[in-house]
Write a structure and sequence with these properties.
Elements lengths: L5 E6 L13 H7 L2 H7 L4 E6 L20 H20 L3 E6 L5 H8 L6 E6 L20 H5 L19 E6 L4 H8 L4 E4 H7 L1 H11 L5 E7 L21 H14 L2 E7 L10 H13 L6
Parallel strand pairs: 1-2, 1-3, 3-8, 4-5, 4-7, 5-6, 7-8
Helix pairs in contact: 1-10, 3-4, 7-8, 8-9, 9-10
């Protein structure tokens, strides 16, 4: 991987879902030593602080989309993260965004899509986040991120002027879908690698398949939800789902992407310190990021 400077932005947002605590995720990941680990690996790292997020007590929900809770405020943050991603691209830097709930990726994916070269998105998550306000059982915007990035959600959730296409997206570790979301995903054209696929064919085989699928992309944006891992090893997440990735499977994803060399930006989201044990999940997030940026066993 080319040694560009790395810039870090926190997005301390929990507006995209109902369970409080993920807004403290950026602080937990920083406390676990992210900057220090990357610096020790030889990277030039600058922390640009946190993107401003509206406070729950000050929200104006009158302009929210029906069945998309806090959508106006989420869109405001998305525009800020969109601009931060564009600044990283302009300055030829690698961008790491620390969530917060996964709705922060509405802006980062849209921003990554403004690159002059073709991009691909690798979405590592227990959930597809492919609902819309029309299909969502909960109205939680963190479950609509991919559909929003594809322009399938109404304003203000459709950030940017062009939208990422289905063939540019690979989902990994999917195992928890809502009924209407499942139907939409089957016909979407997105490459979906479920936990069953990983169980049957192995992570290495599925990663080769994913990278071949994105072979025309010159840059890759990774959006990594920590609930992709099994909650027995990553308990401090916003929406835990059993049957997830093992530690080694998660590291293999990051090590393989590092070897591939095309990753230019990363979301690291859904760490909830309130539900964690001794900051273990945040520390694991740092370990995985280190693997993505060159840490090796040998």
């Amino acid at each position: 991987m080319q040694r560009k400077p790395i810039r870090i932005h926190g997005i301390p947002m929990d507006l995209g879902q109902r369970r409080r605590g993920v807004d403290m995720g950026p602080s937990a990941i920083r406390y676990a030593g992210l900057c220090e680990r990357l610096t020790a690996l030889g990277w030039q790292v600058s922390d640009h602080g946190n993107i401003a997020v509206p406070d729950h007590q000050q929200l104006d929900t009158h302009t929210d989309i029906a069945n998309a809770h806090n959508s106006a405020a989420v869109a405001l943050v998305a525009h800020a993260s969109f601009a931060a991603m564009q600044a990283a691209i302009r300055d030829n830097q690698i961008a790491i965004f620390l969530g917060g709930d996964h709705s922060c990726a509405i802006g980062t994916v849209a921003g990554a899509h403004t690159r002059p070269e073709p991009i691909g998105v690798i979405w590592v998550d227990a959930h597809a986040d492919f609902n819309t306000p029309h299909t969502s059982p909960s109205g939680n915007v963190h479950g609509m991120v991919v559909s929003a990035a594809m322009g399938l959600c109404p304003a203000p959730l459709n950030i940017g002027t062009t939208f990422i296409q289905a063939h540019q997206i690979v989902m990994i570790a999917i195992r928890d879908l809502d009924p209407a979301e499942r139907i939409a995903l089957r016909t979407s054209g997105i490459l979906v690698i479920t936990m069953r696929d990983i169980d049957e064919q192995g992570m290495a085989t599925m990663l080769r398949h994913a990278l071949h699928h994105l072979r025309t992309a010159s840059a890759i944006h990774v959006s990594f939800d920590m609930d992709a891992l099994d909650p027995s090893i990553a308990p401090g997440v916003g929406t835990p789902v059993s049957g997830g990735l093992s530690i080694r499977e998660a590291h293999l994803i990051m090590e393989t992407l590092s070897d591939d060399g095309r990753v230019q930006s990363l979301d690291l989201v859904e760490v909830n310190p309130i539900l964690d044990q001794y900051n273990h999940t945040a520390s694991l997030a740092v370990d995985l990021t280190a693997s993505l940026f060159g840490q090796r066993i040998l």
